[in-house]
Design a protein that fits this description.
Number of helices: 0
Structural class: mainly beta
Largest sheet: 7 strands, mixed
Number of strands: 11
Shape: globular
Length: 123
């Protein structure tokens, strides 16, 4: 499956952005999806994950209550709604997908990655 992340940009602290991850090439319904981010000088970290059906989700503690992951399998797209953005949310955000039943929260569990979209939050 090929993944295309989009929706990044510049936002003020307290603002919102919605990222999209569009899939192509394989039936998206078979794939669990995750969002990860990497800030300059830091390692890639888990942000959120969703099961193939959308019935199960998982979040990093740092974004819980502010970010919401969802998916529309009819559109082969996964979304990350980011509210109450903080300066520390500044990073390149990547979506990843892997055939699985549940949620996958580790980067090494994913073999399919998108190219990343930059989110910059101004303080």
């Amino acid at each position: 499956v090929q993944l295309q992340a989009s929706g990044g940009g510049l936002a003020q602290a307290g603002g919102s952005l919605r990222l999209s991850c569009a899939a192509s090439g394989r039936p998206f319904t078979n794939y669990a999806v995750g969002w990860f981010r990497q800030a300059p000088g830091k390692e890639r970290e888990f942000v959120a994950a969703i099961s193939w059906s959308g019935s199960s989700t998982a979040y990093a503690d740092s974004v819980k209550g502010r970010f919401t992951i969802s998916r529309d399998n009819a559109k082969d797209t996964c979304y990350l709604q980011m509210n109450s953005l903080k300066y520390d949310d500044t990073a390149v955000y990547y979506c990843a997908a892997q055939p699985a039943i549940g949620t996958l929260t580790l980067a090494r569990q994913y073999h399919n990655w998108g190219q990343g979209t930059l989110v910059t939050v101004s303080s």
